[in-house]
Amino acid sequence: MVKKQERIVTVPELQKDSRGFTLIEVIMAMLILMVGMLGLLQSINLAMEVNLRNQVREEAVNVSNRVMSEMRGGGFDNISVAATPTQTYTYSTYQLPSKIRGSSKSYTVTRSSRVLSMVNSKPATKELAVVVGWSYKGVEYQNRVVAPISILR
Predict the structure, then answer these.
(1) C-alpha Rg value of the chain to the nearest Å
(2) Full DSSP string of 54-96
(3) pLDDT tens figures, 102-111
């Protein structure tokens, strides 16, 4: 009589034939994707922060250039200077409101002028200065524009 050999199927042999992912593999894949997505979101947040800071600075540069153009356009003799040539005349400081991305921002504008050279006891060259200050996240920033203006005497 020939005995038949019985084959016993074990659990690891069953798993070799199965296809798909186990629950642990799926959870680990989701964890890796989540860490990658958090890094991506952080980089987007940082990019938006840098972009906003640059827009605020660009607006301050525009304000200082606009104020300087107004001062230079007023005419040489209309630019106030101090009583003595060695002193600097400072105009009154004022606040200039602005809107960036729907939020209000305030810039502090300080203007000054001084005499650089004299001809026949009259100013021939004056220096104009505009300083625009602003605060962003508790840090104070400034943009300074200086320009000479001359007249033939």
Answers:
(1) 36
(2) HHHHHHHHHHHHHHHHHHHHT-GGGS---SSTTSEEEPPPEEE
(3) 888 999 999 9
